[in-house]
Amino acid sequence: MLKVLIVDDEPWVLEGLRTMVDWERFGFEVCGEALNGPDALRMAERLKPDLVLTDIHIPVFNGLELITRLNQSMVKPPRFVILSGYDDFQYARTALRQRVDQYLLKPIDDEEIEALLSRISLMIHNEIASNLERQKKQAMIVGNLINRLIQGEDDEDIQLMAANLMNIPTDAELLGILIDPPSAAALLQQHLKDYFPCELAGCFQDSADRFGLILQSAFLSRDSLTAGVNRLQQDLAEQLQEPVAVMVSERMSGALSLKDIYLQTLEMWKLKYRREKGGVFFNSDFRNSSKELSIDQETFTELLEKVKAGDIQAIEPCVRDIFMFYTQHLFSVEAVQAGIAHLEMTLCRLITERNGETAGMMNQHHEEFGNLGELGDYFRLGSYVSGLCRRAAVYLAELQEANEGNTIYNVIQYVDLEFRNKLQLQELARQFHMNSAYLGQVFRKETGRSFCEYLNHKRIEAAKGLLKRTELKISDVAAQVGFSNTDYFIDKFKRIVGVLPSVYKNSNNCKQR
């Protein structure tokens, strides 16, 4: 339930608001009531309500001062609704500049407050969902940044960003740990400090969703490291009831070493995990003396373009050409696997950038084609790449369509909030990076009205409320809801409502007498 704090210097008003409004129906519960500014300030900071409903005239300091102080003192201030008499109307309008969502004129109309609570409840839930999504995207950004470094990008800005995000000095001593199977990630993320309480610098998931850790190792002894990774491996194997492999790199210096750290652990996975399955493997315990010819990533450039374009039919021939090239130049299976691993990372990055989720896609792909490290010949590796690229092409196309839907939703939300201001379709199209003609088409498809029709209906609905509850002149009402021309407002009002604004206003006045 969302929490609401009610502030008014009249006890009977507090009692009425608490008992006569069906808060639970709109997902709220009254968490507190206050009669003055200081009490309200203390209660809000302690209870952290989602919504504060406050009168303007309260003792010690007024409602606007309360809002200002809460906005300054709270990391996440609540939403605010102002209660005011008609005499405070102009005064209350200034509150709309301070995270105030609405003001209600006393005496409060039941229908008006219910409509308001319904709207604010939706806004708060959308904000909560947006914050969670933002945190998820932030985690994706961090993981993507580390992935860029382990793939070999050596741009100084990226190194500095990584060092800042992981809170490590640029020359810090680091080591890496890679953990397989991918299902270990869900268990690990909440309990990492149980194994490495002071040294953890960052974590990531690679293209195969293997979980990776970066540790600051300057003050981490070999015995402590060995004890930690052994306990980690044993606990995971017991909980997952399947073999778990933990690969530990050598100690290196600075964020620029992340690529070499990762490649060490990946090489151990290829050499040890495939044959021995579970266990703890230290790179310092063995060296791979063989030199492998590396795959030039430009080999996959054309294939990636086919995937991004959604050209499913061209993927298979493109993959055949790539593997014919491998055969002619006698690349080893391990070198091809490393090249495909880089291709996987690139595809996963493209999907993540479009707000997609890679774990499910990769799990489905592995169920159908097997894990990359277990494929020991060109034929199975070729099928693996073809299947992966077809799956990624379809998913990327779906994400593009979904993102277009999200964009029009954001446009409509923006219009709903800013309809009182001057809005033009061309300007909105530029703001949301869309073609204006296309935006007009999808706006009508989504709302059932053209942009101008939708905007005028929003403004007229707001005008009806002002005509019903205030003594403002028709011209002032027109200006407040976004019409710069009073005659145009009157004409649109009559077309939509069926009567002139003056007739509507007088009929409502008669009902109230």
TrEMBL record:
<feature type="domain" description="HTH araC/xylS-type">
    <location>
        <begin position="409"/>
        <end position="507"/>
    </location>
</feature>
<dbReference type="InterPro" id="IPR020449">
    <property type="entry name" value="Tscrpt_reg_AraC-type_HTH"/>
</dbReference>
<keyword id="KW-0963">Cytoplasm</keyword>
<protein>
    <submittedName>
        <fullName>Response regulator</fullName>
    </submittedName>
</protein>
<dbReference type="InterPro" id="IPR001789">
    <property type="entry name" value="Sig_transdc_resp-reg_receiver"/>
</dbReference>
<dbReference type="InterPro" id="IPR011006">
    <property type="entry name" value="CheY-like_superfamily"/>
</dbReference>
<feature type="domain" description="Response regulatory">
    <location>
        <begin position="3"/>
        <end position="121"/>
    </location>
</feature>
<keyword id="KW-0902">Two-component regulatory system</keyword>
<keyword id="KW-0805">Transcription regulation</keyword>
<keyword id="KW-0597">Phosphoprotein</keyword>
<keyword id="KW-0804">Transcription</keyword>
<keyword id="KW-0238">DNA-binding</keyword>
<feature type="modified residue" description="4-aspartylphosphate">
    <location>
        <position position="55"/>
    </location>
</feature>
<dbReference type="InterPro" id="IPR018060">
    <property type="entry name" value="HTH_AraC"/>
</dbReference>
<dbReference type="InterPro" id="IPR009057">
    <property type="entry name" value="Homeodomain-like_sf"/>
</dbReference>
<dbReference type="Pfam" id="PF12833">
    <property type="entry name" value="HTH_18"/>
</dbReference>
<dbReference type="Pfam" id="PF00072">
    <property type="entry name" value="Response_reg"/>
</dbReference>
<dbReference type="InterPro" id="IPR051552">
    <property type="entry name" value="HptR"/>
</dbReference>
<dbReference type="InterPro" id="IPR018062">
    <property type="entry name" value="HTH_AraC-typ_CS"/>
</dbReference>
